[in-house]
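Notes, p. 3: input format for complexes.
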Amino acid sequence: MYSALLNLEGKMVTVVGGGEVAFRKVSSFIEEDCEIHVIAPSFIEEFKTLGHKVHRIYKCYEEGDCAGSFIVVAATDDYEVNKQIGQFCKRGHILCNVVDNKPLSSFIVPSTLKRGDLTISISTGGASPSLAAKIRRELEDKYDAHYGEYIARLGRIRNCVLEKVTDEVEKKRILKHIITLEPQELEAYEKSHFND
Ligand SMILES: C[C@@]1(CC(=O)O)c2cc3[nH]c(cc4nc(cc5[nH]c(cc(n2)[C@H]1CCC(=O)O)[C@@](C)(CC(=O)O)[C@@H]5CCC(=O)O)C(CC(=O)O)=C4CCC(=O)O)c(CCC(=O)O)c3CC(=O)O
Ligand SMILES: NC(=O)C1=CN([C@@H]2O[C@H](COP(=O)(O)OP(=O)(O)OC[C@H]3O[C@@H](n4cnc5c(N)ncnc54)[C@H](O)[C@@H]3O)[C@@H](O)[C@H]2O)C=CC1
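Output follows (196 residues plus SHN):
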């Protein structure tokens, strides 16, 4: 399966289902600048913690509810309903994750660790979602909360290098050098070379 990071800015996302799995899938969209609709006759309490960004629609799924969506997640506990949603999306070329039907899904969701602009996604291709989550937890310790600032600094320095250094060999040398520096050394490097 092909890996990619999607730009959801201004897009409509629809999740069908109001249980634990739907809640986890909705949570993963919260930080994105998109409109989120969730359709289910009932929702678990946790949905209240998500605030006004998530539009809850209290009804059972009906054909056509996902029309106009860029991405759909079929996350009810009804295999047939999930299948109908997947088939509707397939016909309409809408990206769709069917939580209990990998063959009908146009994408599956990896376990993801985010530290600012650093994204680490782990997938087992459906063989063991629990293992994907275990590896994510292990990496959370290695790539801790400080990584956000570290990545932001690397990004700033890279932008300066791309703007100011014209020699291609020198450019590559610097970009390879900066990732060998410890966070504190990188901070000093930025101050001495690029603070103007
Ligand atoms: C194919 C896929 C489709 C998709 O949902 O995209 C899929 C399918 C299924 N999952 C099932 C079970 C569980 N899934 C989890 C957890 C996660 N599942 C996720 C993704 C995926 N799950 C996709 C493949 C990803 C990959 O392998 O790379 C994660 C990574 C991302 C997310 O969901 O956000 C998230 C961890 C997030 C994190 O913590 O980091 C747990 C553990 C838990 O809940 O703690 C269990 C119980 C234990 C177990 O079974 O391992 C079942 C059986 C349901 C049943 O019992 O009937 C199916 C259906 C089937 O296999 O057909
Ligand atoms: N992909 C994954 O990561 C995982 C997938 N699963 C699968 O996900 C399914 C859902 O799991 P849970 O959220 O724990 O179930 P749940 O029972 O907690 O929630 C099911 C939700 O679906 C809603 N629903 C039922 N029929 C509907 C309809 N016609 N239209 C709209 N909403 C409807 C219910 O109101 C409820 O909110 C399970 O049946 C299982 O097969 C389970 C674990 C992990």
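The two ends are 45 Å apart (CA to CA).
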